[in-house]
Amino acid sequence: MPRCVLLLGGSFDPIHNGHVALGATFVRLLGAAELRVIPTVPWQKSSLVATPSQRADMAALAFAGQPYRVVVDRQEIDRGRPTYTVETLRALRAELGPKYGEETALCFLMGADQLQRLDTWRDWRELFGLAHLCVAARPGFSLDGPDIPAAVAAEFRGRLVAPEQLCSRPAGNTCIAADLAVDISSTRIRQWLAGGNYEYDSGSPIPAPVLDYIEQHNLYKK
Ligand SMILES: Nc1ncnc2c1ncn2[C@@H]1O[C@H](COP(=O)(O)OP(=O)(O)OP(=O)(O)O)[C@@H](O)[C@H]1O
Ligand SMILES: O=C(O)c1ccc[n+]([C@@H]2O[C@H](COP(=O)([O-])O)[C@@H](O)[C@H]2O)c1
């Protein structure tokens, strides 16, 4: 079996339990051993609150102690400009091919909200030549019906396979985790933190070390 690397890109402003669950779900479904977490400089969102370095630090804290290998990959923030997933996947192919073999499976993870917008991504059809796409359900965003642009639905459905088949080939398929149901967003967490009226408990939407970091760095205050 070739090496299978899962990729989770995001703004992570801040990273939360939905991101951690998204990574863990596909690690389990695909039987993968490695997750790369890639903080981005998004071209479709204006002004994030935390700096790129702070978002990378929080990503490392959120995934510390997972029972699989996690690498926080700084390539997008190191570019120092808004970036596109297609260029990151090309760079990863160039990096990992010589290291792990050209057959290495790359699996890009996303929530249903991003599938609904996939046709707005730079050169989105090229993504399938570079990686598999793994999409998880997210409360408030459907995985089919009129919310998915027709061209995306056709491309995505035509490539759909069972998750356990993905790691045996390098790219070109899709899979779904229909059971994920984590009703959390970074936007809501920023609002919650700005309210100033919070305390950590086991039901909190972010890992405790991330909340500690946010407090130490005085982030997301009004
Ligand atoms: N609760 C969730 N369930 C499933 N996927 C999620 C969830 N939250 C985020 N994701 C996915 O993680 C990736 C990165 O998300 P991002 O960092 O933009 O978080 P967000 O909560 O969507 O942020 P914001 O509220 O600021 O837009 C995206 O592919 C997104 O779809
Ligand atoms: O390549 C693109 O054009 C593109 C457009 C929107 C989002 N993305 C990627 O999707 C991931 C989630 O982004 P976001 O904005 O939801 O945090 C992250 O890796 C982004 O780089 C990529």
From TrEMBL:
Catalysed reactions, as listed in the record: nicotinate beta-D-ribonucleotide + ATP + H(+) = deamido-NAD(+) + diphosphate
Swiss-Prot/TrEMBL keywords: ATP-binding, NAD, Nucleotide-binding, Nucleotidyltransferase, Pyridine nucleotide biosynthesis, Transferase
Gene3D superfamilies: HUPs (3.40.50.620)
Source species, domain of life: Bacteria
Pathway participation: Cofactor biosynthesis; NAD(+) biosynthesis; deamido-NAD(+) from nicotinate D-ribonucleotide: step 1/1
EC code(s) of this entry: 2.7.7.18
InterPro entries: Cyt_trans-like (IPR004821), NadD/NMNAT (IPR005248), Rossmann-like_a/b/a_fold (IPR014729)
A Pfam family recorded for this sequence: CTP_transf_like
Nucleotide-binding keyword on record: yes
Presence of the UniProt keyword Nucleotide-binding in the record: yes
Gene Ontology terms for molecular function: nucleotidyltransferase activity
Cytidyltransferase-like domain ranges (all copies): 7-191
Function: Catalyzes the reversible adenylation of nicotinate mononucleotide (NaMN) to nicotinic acid adenine dinucleotide (NaAD).
Family, as annotated: Belongs to the NadD family.
UniProt protein name: Probable nicotinate-nucleotide adenylyltransferase
Organism: Pseudoduganella albidiflava
Gene: nadD
